[in-house]
Specification:
Blueprint lengths: L6 E8 L3 E8 L12 E4 L7 E3 L10 E5 L2 E3 L2 E4 L19 E10 L5 E10 L11 E9 L10 E8 L4 E4 L6 H5 L11 E7 L4 E3 L4 E2 L6 E10 L4 E8 L2 E9 L3
Parallel strand pairs: 4-9
Antiparallel strand pairs: 1-2, 3-5, 5-6, 7-8, 8-9, 10-11, 10-18, 11-12, 12-13, 13-14, 15-16, 16-17, 17-18
């Protein structure tokens, strides 16, 4: 039976001339069949896990199996998408943002696998007095729809005053999430004034500037469906029209 090896690659620099690649092997893999760890987060109804600011986080953990044999699971946490702050499961002061818990396990041959649980720190408005919350976003640009821009997670809306709210990205995550360009490509600072939520009476003053591309956007229309807990908005930016549909995620 042939022995399997995991190979490590190294970069070696020849000063002033060229870079060469070299490799070395670890100890051979002794098993004839490699079964990768299958990881299942517990409490799947808590993925995403919506956590109100000030609320205590509960770690539900995950189960990892290698061909039916349970493995140890290591849990770690990511930094916030917008703030860059590391999520602290023992704190009630994590900034409003979305994060992930990463569950990792290694099989007997040393191959690792992982699964994620999304964690969102946000208020969740009732659509009577507040539209705050975390939303899945679907964006149609200039009439063109694509799966790439469907149910993107996540866009945040938070309250800044008695009836005033702000949205994390006036383009609904089109470039940030849909194209995976990152938060340098958002249009922050979108202001929404809820004059009367039940009457669908909103004002959207001012403009928003894309951090990387530049150019000002305007929120041309904004309406809600309180029963469905959805928002529809139309945004103009640099000659493009973005039709944005937001669906609030429930705790």
């Amino acid at each position: 039976m042939k022995a399997l090896y995991k190979i490590k690659f190294y970069a070696l620099a020849a000063t002033g001339l060229l870079a060469l690649n070299a490799c070395s092997t670890e100890d051979p893999i002794t098993s004839s069949v490699t079964n990768y760890a299958v990881i299942t987060p517990n409490n799947d109804d808590k993925n995403p896990y919506v956590l109100a600011p000030g609320e205590t986080y509960e770690e539900f953990g995950a189960v990892a199996l290698e061909d039916g044999t349970e493995l140890d699971v290591e849990t770690s946490y990511t930094r916030g998408h917008f703030t860059g702050e590391l999520f602290d499961p023992n704190s009630t002061d994590n900034p409003r943002d979305f994060y992930s818990a990463r569950y990792s396990a290694e099989n007997q041959d040393g191959f690792s696998a992982s699964q994620m649980r999304d964690i969102i720190v946000t208020e969740t408005g009732d659509f009577e007095t507040s539209i705050a919350g975390a939303y899945l976003s679907t964006v149609v640009r200039d009439g063109t729809a694509s799966a790439q821009y469907t149910n993107m997670g996540y866009v945040l809306i938070w309250q800044t005053g008695e009836n005033t709210f702000e949205i994390s990205d006036a383009l609904g995550g089109y470039y940030d999430i849909g194209r995976a360009y990152g938060t340098d490509y958002i249009n922050p600072g979108g202001v929404i004034i809820a004059n009367d939520i039940s009457a669908n009476d909103f004002s959207t003053p001012g403009t928003q500037t894309n951090i990387a591309f530049g150019g000002n956007s305007t929120i041309d229309s904004f309406s809600v469906d309180p029963e469905a807990k959805t928002i529809d908005m139309v945004v103009s930016w640099e000659g493009y029209t973005f039709e944005i549909h937001l669906e609030q995620i429930q705790p």
